[in-house]
């Protein structure tokens, strides 16, 4: 007989690996973009307010067929703005481009200008969410970005940002000029994230760096914060994250690049401020950018430092409104919870953040809050808001202070070196806060839309988007024009501004005035 020897059983062991680095980064960046979209979605049909009532039609009509005309049009108006104490040529170009994009959405998708404006603002907020995440990772990571998994900071940050995106009054960038100020804030943060990552300074980079510094001085007030913030990022990351001594930090390529940016920035900034001071000393200047140095600055500063806190902003958003929508709260909570669940599952695959890196991030975040608050406290408008005890009211500084506050929250949590379950609990808490922010945004929209002026602005937007060339359509537009003047008293100045804006759009779309019956 032949013995049958059984074959040995070989156990197969499968190694289950986590998702690749690229997938972790894609999920983190996607969350950074989607959370702001969920929180701001209730504002998508908010009626245009303030300058938006006119500028989207004026700029859209002027530049729809020739976008390149934005450059000479802005430069030609520069002397007039300087005489009024204002110098933002590159920022005004971006503002006109954002208005053009909102107007063009009507041609491409048939959207009225009110929806187009909010869509552009929402896209800019999504860009800002991504920029906040990139800055945070640039600070806490000692290696090259995107070559290693993101840290646990990346899992928490998007929800902290979502919680602070609140329509806290009509001056908040969530409501007014969101496309401009959210994009500007994203530019500030991306510059601060990019400069410390410069590994080598080459000769051909000197000219672009000098020009870049000059461009920051010619953009708008928020971009003035880019270089002080980048300076702190270079110092904090070099000292605490990379563990270098101060001499090495100061001699590094990022520090030398910063020096070149400052050299390009300061001559333009100083010259412009001298010219503005001279003009404003001879007569009144534009109130919105007027600098008021007095004891009110000291009173306004601490208020603006905390104005980003969600409860304060919620109070401003619901002021004068009714009940909150349980439906919106439930929908927002469901969408954000789904994103939060994926982020919580990713935590065990993300890099840890040590105390030195968390200290560096906290320093950068606090710097961003302080810089934005200091800029705002110099404004006469903000000083009046503080004097009226409207502490959570949004202003243009909110575009940088609110992200700074979000990063400060994340950094403070990581300073305690929490375990991953505690970070999961923090994500859940921030998800709830972001859902409340979405609900207060809906309440703000409902409050605004209760106004006859807002409802009329929406009807005007529809009249431009669905332009009726018939005599009956012209008669309806003339009736809207008359109703606008009845609800918005302003005399001949208002009439000229209305006709200038709406005629530009009407002539671009149909080759006729908005109200030809009255001409």
From TrEMBL:
Keyword Lipoprotein part of the UniProt annotation: no
Coiled coil: none
Keywords, in A-Z order: Membrane, Transmembrane, Transmembrane helix
Superkingdom, taxonomy of origin: Bacteria
Residues passing through the membrane, by range: 115-136, 148-168, 174-195, 207-235, 255-276, 324-344, 356-378, 399-416, 422-440
Protein name: 4-amino-4-deoxy-L-arabinose transferase-like glycosyltransferase
Naturally occurring in which organism (per UniProt): Paractinoplanes rhizophilus
């Amino acid at each position: 007989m032949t013995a049958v020897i059984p074959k040995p059983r070989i156990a197969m062991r499968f190694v289950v690996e986590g998702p690749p680095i690229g997938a972790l980064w894609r999920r983190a960046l996607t969350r950074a973009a989607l959370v702001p979209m969920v929180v701001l979605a209730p504002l998508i049909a908010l009626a245009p307010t303030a300058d938006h009532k006119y500028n989207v039609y004026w700029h859209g009509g002027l530049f729809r067929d020739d976008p390149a005309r934005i450059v000479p049009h802005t430069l030609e108006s520069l002397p007039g703005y300087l005489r009024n104490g204002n110098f933002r040529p590159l920022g005004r170009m971006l503002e006109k481009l954002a208005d053009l994009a909102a107007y063009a959405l009507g041609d491409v998708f048939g959207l009225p200008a009110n929806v187009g404006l909010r869509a552009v603002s929402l896209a800019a907020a999504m860009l800002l969410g991504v920029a906040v995440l990139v800055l945070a990772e640039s600070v806490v990571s000692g290696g090259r970005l995107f070559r290693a998994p993101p840290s646990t900071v990346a899992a928490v940050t998007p929800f902290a940002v979502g919680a602070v995106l609140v329509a806290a009054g009509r001056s908040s960038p969530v409501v007014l000029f969101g496309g401009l100020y959210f994009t500007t804030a994203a530019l500030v943060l991306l510059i601060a994230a990019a400069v410390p990552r410069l590994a080598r300074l080459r000769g051909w980079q000197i000219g672009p760096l000098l020009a870049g510094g000059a461009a920051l001085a010619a953009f708008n007030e928020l971009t003035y914060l880019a270089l002080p913030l980048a300076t702190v990022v270079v110092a904090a990351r070099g000292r605490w994250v990379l563990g270098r001594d101060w001499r090495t930090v100061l001699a590094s390529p990022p520090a030398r690049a910063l020096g070149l940016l400052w050299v390009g920035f300061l001559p333009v900034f100083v010259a412009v401020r001298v010219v503005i001071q001279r003009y404003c000393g001879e007569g009144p200047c534009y109130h919105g950018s007027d600098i008021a140095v007095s004891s009110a600055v000291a009173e306004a500063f601490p208020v603006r430092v905390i104005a980003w806190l969600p409860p304060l902003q919620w109070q401003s958003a619901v002021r004068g409104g009714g009940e909150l929508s349980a439906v919106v709260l439930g929908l927002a909570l469901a969408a954000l919870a789904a994103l939060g669940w994926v982020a919580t599952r990713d935590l065990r695959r993300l890099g840890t953040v040590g105390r030195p890196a968390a200290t560096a991030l906290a320093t950068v975040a606090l710097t961003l809050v302080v810089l934005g608050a200091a800029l705002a406290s110099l404004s006469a408008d903000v000083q009046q808001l503080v004097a009226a005890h409207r502490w959570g009211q949004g202003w243009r500084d909110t575009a940088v202070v609110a992200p700074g506050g979000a990063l400060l929250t994340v950094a403070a949590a990581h300073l305690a070196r929490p375990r991953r379950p505690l970070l999961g609990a923090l994500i859940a808490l921030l998800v709830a806060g972001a859902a409340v922010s979405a609900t207060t945004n809906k309440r703000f929209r409902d409050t605004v839309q209760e106004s006859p002026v807002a409802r009329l602005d929406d009807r005007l937007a529809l009249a431009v988007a669905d332009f009726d060339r018939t005599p009956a359509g012209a008669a309806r537009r003339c009736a809207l024009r008359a109703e606008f003047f009845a609800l918005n008293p302003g005399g001949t100045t208002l009439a000229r501004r209305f006709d200038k804006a709406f005629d530009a759009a009407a002539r671009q779309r149909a080759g006729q005035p908005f109200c030809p019956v009255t001409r």
